[in-house]
């Protein structure tokens, strides 16, 4: 456990967050994650924070972070406190890495993706005892807290393979960037997040994140993974499959469609109300328990601008 962190905040008041990667404008899929985490925070009288996950600099698109904030504003999703930017927090991440390293839990690894593929896909802790130089290599965390299963508030019991649970995963990449798995947990601790509501594409990585929470503070927040909006089975809505940016000038249709996606019985007339009225209605209707529990829901944008949903995986 690290001296500057402890788990006391987990029993304190609700703090949730939305953590977009500014690799493009918000599309319907990211609106769902934003809206679900926002509504859950609101009905629990909690704080709702926004964090820009701009640590993966090659994927960051200039102007996207500001555009995302403008969209959240247009959709009435007003955040508490200052927006946190991961790109400005290198010292914090470096400090945590140094402490893990001082505890002898960090080691360099030279395995390429290709080599791992040939050895079965999952890293087999091959470089643990090799004493490689950090120069030009990735850094991995020795896994001392393997998580074989966990309970998600929506998806229920999630089981991991032993190989995945016991894998020493990368915390700093070969290209010298801090890995998502490290910074997401350090930030969630630093921002004292008590419940994480996000898309089900992050269900499996959650086991790693819980293991790092246990390593750092001995406990972990609650997780709720909302059905993922996909264009085709297995393919989440993204810029790559041409998910259009959502409309900032007329937010009502996409907002109402996102609420329908979340299982709320949105009356047709609601579309013609103001954004604050729609959100107030949603706060009265929303419960985590009533959300669909499918891993994926296929979204089709119809020609008339309506959205159509097909629930895919139970
Ligand atoms: N930045 C991640 C994404 O956009 C989400 C991280 C998280 O919610 O933990 O996919
Ligand atoms: Zn290796």
TrEMBL record:
GO cellular component entries: cytosol
Record: residues binding Zn(2+): 109, 111, 123, 127
One GO BP: glutamyl-tRNA aminoacylation
Pfam families, sorted: tRNA-synt_1c
Annotated Glutamyl/glutaminyl-tRNA synthetase class Ib catalytic domain residues: 15-245
Span(s) of short sequence motif 'HIGH' region: 20-30
Domain of life: Bacteria
Protein keywords: Aminoacyl-tRNA synthetase, ATP-binding, Ligase, Metal-binding, Nucleotide-binding, Protein biosynthesis, Zinc
Motif ('KMSKS' region): 236-240
The protein's name: Glutamyl-Q tRNA(Asp) synthetase
The organism of origin for this protein: Pseudoalteromonas rubra
